[in-house]
Design a protein that fits this description.
- Its main location: membrane.
- GO terms for molecular function: G protein-coupled receptor activity.
- This protein is an all-alpha fold.
- The chain has helices at residues 5-38, 45-74, 82-115, 117-122, 127-143, 147-150, 169-213, 216-222, 226-240, 242-285, 292-316, 318-321; strands at residues 151-153, 159-161.
- The protein contains 12 helices and 2 strands, in the order H-H-H-H-H-H-E-E-H-H-H-H-H-H.
- The chain is globular, with a radius of gyration of 24 Å.
Amino acid sequence: MALHPQILFIVIHMTAVMTLAIFGNLFLVLIIVRGNAIIRRRISPVQLLLLHTCAADLLFALLSLGTEILIIITYPHFGGPGWLCQVVRYLQMFPLYASPFLLVAISADRFQAICRPLENFRRNRFKRPNCLASAAWTLALICSLPQLLVWYKTENGECATIYGRGVTLLKTIYVISFNTIAWLLPSIMAASFYYCVCKAVWASNFSHSFDTQISPATKLDVFNSKSFQTQFYLERIRRGSGHMKRQTTELDRKRVQTVRLTMTIIVCNFFLWAPFCVVNVVQALAPRLLSKHLKQTIDASVLPVISQLSIAVYWSHAEILRGK
């Protein structure tokens, strides 16, 4: 049976994006691993979390896009038993939760490393990102469990939801819960972490330039405590040592680059998720306001673009990926 032209376009588009996502993320993994192998350095905590994000994007390409393409082609008949319908929908939802949760993990890791540096050096620097990534994957597995309850195979062989196509209270609660957990809450948490990170970076840059902008007499009047006296003493030592100054400047530059990289991913992720989440909420509350083809187009366009976001941003920051 021939597919509708619009459905055919969606299938071709999703197939192309799935292929690009697979090869693109595999190439990114190769860049990170190969770059650290060349300079004989262990993968950094940020790169470790970025590898987890690449894994989530690969799962999205294979589990979400790949299975959805097969379902669209054979719609309305689902070629499998009822339990397979539930498992497939569960696997489709899993990467949609894992990706934003991992972005929150990256934000929390940067917050801990920049805003609490002493605590960061006291502990194993690789233990924290591993714990954060494990928590993100575990929460994604748990949050995807409702898929096993809301999907079933009908007598006509269609993989459908228990709340049907109309407006029901259960459907509204489920859709709003998904958008809140997978988009709104992670965005708020990531924004909170990065607000603290940007504030700490700005304060650090301000303290570095404070010594040259304000006279010594003013500094003694404003900062007369021993802690600030010690801070300015160490700052003068740092400025007097050329090697230490170059090393500190390089560390500051890499820190700013890392913050810029991860913050760009999170900001873009928020705005790219927004159309998909808003459309789903509107459809759950007032489905007559949206046409079926419009929703299918947004679902087929926005989510694949989100999967390509990391690739585009990572390539624009290739220096960090190579570990330089």
